[in-house]
Design goal:
heterodimer, A: 124 residues, mainly alpha, 3 helical TM bundles of succinate and fumarate reductases, elongated, B: 131 residues, 0% strand
């Protein structure tokens, strides 16, 4: 039998320790240069037509940058939304359902976006 | 085990008791911009999907965001990005253990708000001139 104290010792009741905290901070730091780069991309694509957009994403710096942006953004937003759900949703079933949806939504965005970037830059 | 009787414990005063302070409001706005960006990422995904799908899909995307509402969504998205980034830098400064003096807390909070609005305005004025 485990006492309550024993259960939360070490890595804590979620068995994840400070993993969430660290991943959140590392993606936060990565997101600073990535956001600046992303703003530059938004700045450049406004007013571009279809062919110019494709050409821009054919540039390896832009496409690699976009993949990094997608990876770091979707990881960071999943952790952030997880915290928001855990803070405000107190009904267990609804909370767990929303946490699962949060995972699925973030992974869907991540995979679909990276697929699109690769398809454009490898010549669709 | 004896069933514990639920005791009505006194609660500490919560958010609605206090008059809004700038650092408190910026903390709430940080969460709101984070949540907006969460769904904004879907726009980024749709943009990429439209490019993959070809010229017709891309032109549809362009025409949707060429409207007044579309422009406001994109301007709001860039503001949320900048605000959340500045707010994030503020939190990273606090993570080092510094910047907790009241005057610095207020400066950082105001800086986040004013900086994000100014940078968004500069971004779109430059964009209007150059693009």
């Amino acid at each position: 039998m485990k006492t309550s104290l024993n259960r939360v010792r070490g890595l804590g009741s979620a068995k994840n320790g400070t993993g969430h905290f660290w991943a959140q901070r590392i993606t936060a730091i990565a997101n600073i240069p990535l956001t600046i780069g992303f703003l530059l991309i938004i700045f450049c694509v406004t007013g571009l037509n279809y062919y110019q957009n494709v050409e821009l994403l054919n540039n390896p710096i832009v496409s690699i940058g976009m993949i990094l942006i997608i990876l770091s953004f979707t990881y960071h937003m999943r952790l952030g939304m997880q915290t928001v759900i855990e803070d405000y949703i107190h009904k267990e079933l609804l909370k767990v359902s929303m946490l699962i949806l949060n995972y699925l939504f973030s992974f869907f965005i991540m995979i679909t976006s990276i697929y699109s970037i690769l398809k454009i830059s490898f010549g669709s | 085990m004896i069933k514990m009787k639920k005791i009505e414990k006194p609660l500490s005063p919560h958010l609605q008791i206090y008059s809004p302070l700038i650092n408190m409001v910026m903390s709430i706005v940080h969460r709101i911009t984070g949540s907006l960006l969460y769904f904004g990422t879907a726009i980024l995904m749709v943009w990429l999907l439209c490019i993959v799908s070809g010229e017709a899909a891309f032109n549809t995307f362009q025409s949707v965001f060429d409207t007044l509402i579309g422009n406001m969504v994109i301007i709001g998205y860039t503001w949320a990005l900048i605000h959340h980034m500045l707010g994030g830098i503020r939190h990273l400064i606090w993570d080092t253990g510094s910047g907790f003096e009241i005057e610095n807390i207020n400066k950082l909070a105001w800086g986040t708000l004013i900086g994000s609005i100014l940078l968004t305005i500069i971004f779109w004025i430059l964009n209007y001139i150059l693009c």
